[in-house]
Amino acid sequence: MPTEHFCEGTWLVCTVDPEGFDETENTYTLEYKDGPFEKVGEEQGMGVGVTIKIAQFPDGTTFEDVPREEIQVDIWDQPTAGFPWFIVATTAVQVLIYALYMAGVVDHDESYGGPEALTLDAMSGWPSCDDQRSEVWRYIGYQFVHASHSHIAFNAIVQLMIGIPLELASGARLGVVYETGVVVGALAVMFSDPTDTVVGASGGVYALFGAHFGHTVLNFHELRRGFFNRYTRFFLLTAFIAVDTGMAVATLSKEGNEASTSYAAHAGGFVAGLGFAFFGFEELVDHHGKTHKLRPVAALLMVALVVFLVANVAAMDPIRGIHTPAREDVYCCYQTAYCSGLDKSDNDKFSCSLDDGDYVVYPRNQRAPNQETLSCDALIDFANPARRY
Asked: Could you tell me which CATH number the domain at 85-315 has?
């Protein structure tokens, strides 16, 4: 706004003095860094949109009683927390593991890039069908396994583009956000449909989306300057989510236990990132009372969500989520597990085959042409007829 020192359209680069907030007047004290600047146009003969420095203030100059509505933030003017080691190193490890597996440097039988021991899979393969829910490393390790070239490329590019600016601004907390998103995404998969085998870093990527969204909401009033202003951020976040969702729809496998991306991991990661942003990120300009009251509420909701999801994983019997398909549409291990009259040891009496995208359970060495998977009653009768009566 025009003052005795500045005309309309000029601005300074300053930092906010954290001790200079006047809660009664909602004003701030700013410490001078550079400027003032002015954007000039064709009438000055310098072209449209050229920024020039028109003066210089002495070092140590401060500006008091500055209204909050006059403070704007440009991402390029924000101080950094050092090199973004976490997101760069994590991405490099993910790409390296995928490349080693796909190039055959590491001997493996899996059709995707990474060790099977890290995939998010509630049960092992047929016929052992061991319960793997207690293998806690899977809830974080699945980020290092990817299903295809496009899968790893998209996740790597997007998390670098989204994660680097966040880590520059927030430092090591970015790592906590990312890994929290990976774990909460895995727990959300177990709540939604644990019969899917899930791989990829989408839980962490969507945590970055959620954190960026939360960061923009927290600083909505200040993020008005520069290309990466509040509206650009919201547009880019929406576009990335739309593209990733489209890829998930195109590649999502519904054929039993084959690796796929998961909407539940996306949703869980996004919620984790959004929640962490509200209680774990510093504001660009401290808003004091309003958001300080929000922080404990956001933290309590996050803790409650994680406790609920962990309890769900531990209590499931049998292993079934709210979106698990019908019994005949899931992997053989789950088909027999959903039959209350069968023991896991009975699996040795049956065979499991993939037929036109559907898994079929039938008596060992008794496969009939075009046979459908047997019902629970038929399986129980074959395993031990006496159990049914």
From this structure: 1.20.1540.10
